[in-house]
Amino acid sequence: MSNCFSMRSGLRVAICLLAFGCVIPAAVAGVKATDVWIGEVPPSSDVAAGYLVLRNEGRQPMALTAISSPVARRVEWHDVQHQDGMVKMQPRQSVLLAPGQQRVLGPGDSHLMLIGLTRPLALGERVALTLQWQDGSRQTVTATVRPRPLPAAPAATHHHHHGHH
Ligand SMILES: [Cu+2]
After folding, report:
1. What is the whole-number distance in angstroms between the Cα of residue 112 and the centre of ligand 1?
2. Structural domains of the chain, count
3. Which of 3, 18, 72, 144 has a Cα at 20 to 30 A from 131?
């Protein structure tokens, strides 16, 4: 009798997973990532910048504790501070998103830094970025390599800064 019961509940769980499996990753993280891209860099470049929009659609605060990608030895979150006409980059160990909070990472502002590229990135290529959250969940999103928007003195400053990494 008890065997029969556990088999049935096991089956029910399996059916549940099949039916709702696609919903689970989003529900676990509660954070939606959109507009994920990496700025094109010359093949000789050792670093590239990544951008995305993160929105916490859950009810719990979410802390991003690590980011990784198969194409870089490490990935950092850099916040940008403008101070006395200088652009300073501040690596963050973790980034907290309150419920409903949105962070927009874009050129000239906060960004992800892919450091130690393991190979050149081709324009249009899709690259995986894995976000690790404090609750232990992981979320892999796909970034597309896109041309960087033109000019921008900030971009030049940025490039200079990373030369010193
Ligand atoms: Cu940076």
Report:
1. 7
2. 1
3. 18
